[in-house]
Amino acid sequence: MTIDVRIVGAALVLLALLVWQAGQTAGSNMAALAAVGGLLGLVLYHASFGFTAAWRRFVTTGEGRGLRAQMLMLALAVCLFFPALAAGELFGRPVGGFVFPVGLGVVAGAFMFGIGMQLGGGCGSGTLFTVGGGSTRMVLTLLFFIAGSVAAIGHLPFWHGLPGIGGVSAVATLGLWPALMLHLALFALIAGLTLAVERRRGVAKRPRTMADWLRGPWPIFAGAIALAFLNFLTLWLAGRPWGITSAFTLWGGKGLDALGVEVTAWHNWGGMAGAIERSVLFDVTSVMNFGIVLGAMLAAGLAGRFRPTLRLGAGDIGSAVLGGLLMGYGARLAFGCNIGAFFSGIASGSLHGWVWLAAAFAGSMIGVRLRPFFNQP
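User: That's the sequence. What structure does it adopt?
Assistant: Structure tokens below.
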């Protein structure tokens, strides 16, 4: 397919406007984070780096290439993150990881998210980059992702009040080198298990294809390396790792506020009350999410694949609605999605990230089996 010059031009103009406006509103760091978001969207689209499809292929066929790419991404990330987190600073700037409590509410939320990502057709990052790539079905998923995020706010005291423990950091508990060696060993173990499953199930190797670095597609392992470095860049610029779903709660709250609902008076709105009244361009996660959508739009234009369609069947609509609600609700309970909780959580050395992985993968297995009821392959 040929490059769609109109889409590429529109994406570049919009991305440039985002970077400029973010800089004018919140400073040069925010402008840089908008640009990083654009690069993340480009990488996610060109490398087709989705967590949902990779997990589904492993469950249904035993193919583990996508999981191995995720392990490579995590291995590189911990090598970059752990020394900075142990030092508490990166190139002179204070940094901190995503280390969250672990409890039954987190397990339940991650399990819900796992089901939802298979029904909705994408995870947190997958929803954004496919929206940017022109998927109208994923726009519906995103809308209900936002709705689920807001709905969970009122129930957080119950879920987070269930039995659990506080945040556990491997770096703080074990020390830098033991934590790093333990994580690298776990990644190698998981990668080895995927290879063993492939051999047992007779999975054929995919043929190698030449990468077109401008138009795509890119090798998935190249995407894994790029995502690890871009998350590290986010750590430096924002002082914390990459996240996605907290912005959805903010967007939903702003939408309700615009409709006259006094969300700032909600008991559990917490620290987001001030964010409702400020420009969304002061919110790091929102600015990066906008960048991801526009970066993916740029990639789709370069690939000549930006082809939105409004033809959605009842199964498409039902799975998008239910999947989006489950992901939004589950992400709030579990302190994040596949990016904030899984990728950035494990890159931060948080036990919470590993618990999220186990619970979300279990939910994903259920979600895979529910897809046929919605006429989803």
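Residues 5-374 form one domain.
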